[in-house]
Amino acid sequence: MSEEQPWRVPWSEETVWEAPWAGPPGAPGWSDERRLLAMAFATGLRKTGSLMQVMSQAAADKIGINATDLNCLNILSFSGSLTAGELARATGLTTASITGVVDRLEAAGFVSRQRDASDRRRVVVTITLEKAIREVASTFAPMVADWQELAANYTDDELRLIVEFYDKMEQIIRKHLSRLREEA
Hints:
two-stranded antiparallel ribbon, mainly alpha
């Protein structure tokens, strides 16, 4: 990073992104190095988030579905099935939008839906595991293999720290997701 522009963060060898901050991050008493590290940390999180969105779009294109449908399929993969209402709440989509998502995913063979046996008003959406593994998991398998190779470079204690970090990041993201939904 240049002395003249300490808040420029390299994106790639060809591109440098300006990190739009009102001022340097940090707290009183932070050293210049700590401020630069905090800036690189925040920028790394933002870049990773953007790249994951771009990756999801590219994967959805390859699979033949849209990115929203792929995200819903990913959310379903954690539990195997959810009610349509639960899926709507998990994604922030309206129930009408979820109906369209489920229609498309069902037509593509990625999910099935059934009436809830205990409450016939509710629809349970279940992932079709074989199809998801064949078409979705195989699309992400090379990246997952690279993640596993990367993880092999860390000790168990380092991996515990990374897992704890991701757990805390999930809590922060959920907190601000709720805040944004309440403000909308």
